[in-house]
Amino acid sequence: MGSHSSSGIQDTLPLAAHTSTTCTCKSHIFIDSEMATNVKMPLDLPNPGPLTEAQKALVKSTVPILEKQGPEITRRFYKAMLSANPDLKNTFNNSKQQQGGQAEALARAVYGYAAHIDDPTPILPYVERITHKHASLNIHPSQYKIVGHHLLSAITEVVGPSVFQGALYDAWYAAYWELARLFIGLEEKLYEGAEWVGWREFVVRERKEETEDVCSFYLVPKDGGVLPGYKPGQYISVQRYIPELGFNQSRQYSLSDAPNTNHFRISVRRDHSPIPGTLSNNLHSTLHTGDTIQVAFPFGEFFLSSSSSTCPSSTTSTSSGVHSLASHALNNETTSLLTLHPSPSQVKRAIFYSDIQGAVQGQDYDFAGRMDLSKLGDEVLRVGDESAEYYVCGPERFMDDIGKSLRGRGVDVTRIHSEMFSAAANPISGN
């Protein structure tokens, strides 16, 4: 995760949009485009009412501008917002800010929202995913007011105050708050179902060096309380003060063990990239047995239900993404696990498993090399079984390729579920 299971899942706040699905194997919040108008807003937040058709047309007219200037808008947005509200640095991923990943993701999200403003169906598959991530970071309704102010100000600066004014500004103001109301309402439902909201102090009961690059941390509540149950594939956010930055960093990590009430286990990969993940490497270097760390309630919609044995499923991941699927496999909830690993050493690094030299093609695996679903028959993939579900985890391009391949073989998009371990979230690809 973000790395998805190692560096965390971090998405943009809050303009990215998730999914309603017909699958009986998975419990989702069901969403429709009218839901935003039915959310009760706090009295101190704007409520301009539903978008009119004229306002939708005005918002959609800005799509060419957003396509060209979106990244500049979102770069200015983040710079101004974090400068005016330094406390939000505790929420946003500092490494992704330096890399520019969050600005790029937000630019695509704003573009996607505008492009589909008259029919949000193509972007609804992202709303639930983002609401879970927001809930794991304890996002408050009041923060949407901050985001809205700086986003509209950034659009004004880039597009020009002589253009972004009057009816056009009002249309975007209404559009922003319609989406914000949707997020706020869904996040409130998640908070209502959580046993705690915000951060809870945990202790590292055990630190286990899985490989030279992967370390597992077994976390238990400092207060000795019983842990809640969680679903395979869910994650927790953890937060820690980073002295060299002077503020906290919060990241999401997959729960890498089968669901239990004894501990949370996260498996963190050391990041060797040019701009490494700050918190992941901090945990590797400084978090030891007996130390404390702040932990959020488990969230995440990338899971199968307890009745999944009656619903065939295939899971597909890259070497890092398999951490997100580890709890599925350990809980015996997946019918088949399709994984991509460039080398045996990366298999070991990803899933703490070293005995692969004796694997037999045709018995233990179908083929070696880059994941290519065209090499697998319809029977193996169960594309003709409409009850089959597909769970994909990895980088954006990997998931796009897998999604397109499955859809090309007749798999309906509602049967394809994905979890991305990068800051990017493409609201238009439909995977």
From TrEMBL:
Record field: catalytic activity: 2 nitric oxide + NADH + 2 O2 = 2 nitrate + NAD(+) + H(+); 2 nitric oxide + NADPH + 2 O2 = 2 nitrate + NADP(+) + H(+)
GO biological process: cellular response to nitrosative stress; nitric oxide catabolic process; response to toxic substance
InterPro entries linked to this entry: FAD-bd_FR_type, FNR_nucleotide-bd, Globin, Globin-like_sf, Globin/Proto, Riboflavin_synthase-like_b-brl
Keyword Protein transport: no
Domain Globin: 50-188
Ranges for domain FAD-binding FR-type: 197-305
Domain of life according to the entry: Eukaryota
Cofactor requirements of the protein: heme b; FAD
Keywords of this entry: Detoxification, FAD, Flavoprotein, Heme, Iron, Metal-binding, NAD, NADP, Oxidoreductase
Matches recorded under Pfam families: Globin
GO molecular function, one term: metal ion binding
E.C. number(s) listed in UniProt: 1.14.12.17
Keyword NAD among record annotations: yes
Family as reported in the entry's similarity comment: In the C-terminal section; belongs to the flavoprotein pyridine nucleotide cytochrome reductase family.
Protein name, per record: nitric oxide dioxygenase
Species whose genome carries this gene: Meripilus lineatus
